[in-house]
Amino acid sequence: MQIFREREEDLENLLNRGALWAVTYGDLMSYLMIFFLLLFVFSLTGGTAFEEGISIIQESFGGQVNQARIDRAIRRSQEEIIAKDVRQAFVDQGLQQMTGVEISEDRIRITLREPILFASGKAFLKPEAFPILHGVAEIMRNQPHPLMIEGHTDNVPVGIRNEYESNWQLSMARAYTVIRYFVDVEGLDPKRLSGVGYGEYQPVVPNTSTDNRARNRRIDISLLRSAASAW
User: Fold this and answer.
1) Can you give the residue range of the structural domain that contains 177?
2) Are 170 and 164 in contact (CB under 8 A)?
3) What is the chain's percent helix, strand, coil content, to nearest 5?
4) Checking CA distances to 154, which of 14, 56, 131, 166 falls within 20 to 30 Å?
5) Do 19 and 123 belong to one domain?
6) Whether residue 178 is found in the same domain as residue 203
7) What is the pLDDT of residue 105?
8) What angle (nearest 5°) sits at the alpha carbon of residue 216, between those of residues 211 and 222?
9) Cβ(79)–Cβ(139) below 8 Å
């Protein structure tokens, strides 16, 4: 009987040692489940929930919460809301074909095609431009980010009777006109605003057709992401 008990104990110890792999396997499965759950949440709700989920897991397993990472995600989520609001405002005004909104790593860029702001070859705002720019200003008013106004033209030379000597000069004059509107009419802080004229030198498409040239004649209003909040 003594021998039997000893063999039984040896067998039990052997089985216990052989089953240790199950502990590691169980941990691995738990981590994989959390990982795929986070991916699922991220796909549904965006970056903020993902960052918060990562921080919760770090805290649960004794790690440190990366607050700066969460703050960046929150700012990015807020910027996505801004972009959504601007897009909806353009849709409400029936301007979605003449405008564009995109988010990049360093900015939210709002594009306004020439016909809705300026007459051909001119740098004074058309009457219908005021409600459009007012809507943009209302959305941007309470944001801390700087605003850059960029003027762009196509590659067709200005006429000899035009008051501007070149497309470059015309694009700078248009950018300045938008800046003055934001400051003088909308009361935006001038410290937030800057402007630049690129003329024909930064086209979005080749100037090979009438439609393409129309796309290149534009004003870009960029809400710049500060260095502290950049990815």
Assistant:
1) 76-229
2) yes
3) 55, 15, 30
4) 131
5) no
6) yes
7) 79
8) 140
9) no
